[in-house]
Amino acid sequence: MKAMIWTKYGPPDVLQLREVEKPIPKDNEILVKITATTVMIGDCELRALKIPILYQIPLRIILGITKPKRVTILGQELSGDVEAVGKKVTRFKIDDPIFAPTLLYLSTYAEYTCLPEQYAVYKPASISYEEATTIPTGGIYGLHLVREANLRPGQKVLICGAGGTIGTYALQIAKSFGVDVTCVDSAAKLDLLRSIGADHVIDYTKENFTRSGQKYDAIIDVVGKSSYSGSIRCLKPSGHYVLGNPGISGMLRGRWTSKTTDKRVLFETAGQSAEAYAFLIQLIEAGKVKPIIDRCYPLEQIAEAHRYVDTGQKKGNVVITVRQA
């Protein structure tokens, strides 16, 4: 099978298209014929290992000290069809359409991959493969952040980094809850944000929301670039500050703020649950949430897709079409 192999830590050119052996599922696994996958900022950071040193050390131990060894194919989410099943698999059969996260298995930049059956979610016909492959990260984390914000109809939320994989989902989910949403991102993404429901938009290069005098019931920072003290000042009493990409400083300060004030700082990671997937599918099928796809690339052009994502200009999701559905 064809796969984009991760040869070393570095720029997009370290991804090389090669022929590799088709995997065989274990007893509790399904073999998936991949239709689509994605390229996210997290994939690019992992590819280059441009992450905080605190996480670099354990990742090098897991993946390989000087170059990737245990995992040599990147990619964190997929959609496709079940090609084969292990003898203990009970939830799926051959030809079932599914989508799934692969977590630390990675390995979606390929024509086939294996994963535990409990990772997979049945894909309804009303959602395309390209749309479905964006749900495990953008949808699940967007829903998690909005739920952590504990929002009620009529309240006000500000979302920092609203134009990306997670932010475009979080915006639409918040709107489905009847919330007034202000979005912060670059100027190039503001029209998109308005088109999918943003009530107010802020170009962060021209305006600092922490100095506007506005108060919010919750602030969701998807990318981890908002001012901590400024954001806390912008919260109403009992407001929630939700950190989607917290650093050590934010976590430590957050625990102190939550302990000593009436404001709560939250930064727990999202879990994968059948309830969350069912809820997201319901929102998408009802037309309340639309997966946003910026560009599609073929498998052979994954390196080019990484270059584009590295620019920080992507709107919503970048999808890799491995095969035509």
What does this 3D model show about the protein?
It is globular, with a radius of gyration of 20 Å. A hairpin with an 8-residue loop joins β1 (2-6) and β2. The protein has helices spanning 41-48, 53-63, 129-132, 135-148, 167-176, 190-195, 228-233, 248-260, 274-285, 302-310, and strands at residues 2-6, 15-19, 29-39, 77-85, 97-101, 112-116, 121-122, 156-160, 180-185, 200-203, 216-221, 235-243, 264-266, 293-298, 317-321. The chain is built from 10 helices and 15 strands. The chain has 325 residues and is α/β, with parallel strands linked by helices. The strands form 3 sheets. Strands 3, 4, 5, 6, 7, 14 and 15 form a 7-stranded mixed beta sheet that branches. The chain has a 6-stranded parallel beta sheet with strand order 10-9-8-11-12-13.
Which key terms come to mind for this protein?
325 residues; alpha/beta; seven-stranded mixed sheet; six-stranded parallel sheet; 10 helices
Count of helix runs: 10
Helix-residue proportion: 25-40%
Estimated radius of gyration? 20 Å
Distance separating the two termini: 17 Å
Give a count of the beta strands, DSSP E runs of length 2 or more. Answer: 15
The portion of residues forming beta strands comes to 25-35%
Global structural class = alpha/beta
Average per-residue pLDDT, rounded, comes to 95
Form type: globular
Unreliable stretches (pLDDT < 50, length at least 5) are none
Task: Report the biggest beta sheet as strand number plus sense, adding barrel if it closes.
Answer: 7 strands, mixed
Q: What's the order of the H and E elements?
A: EEEHHEEEEHHEHEHEEHEHEHEHE
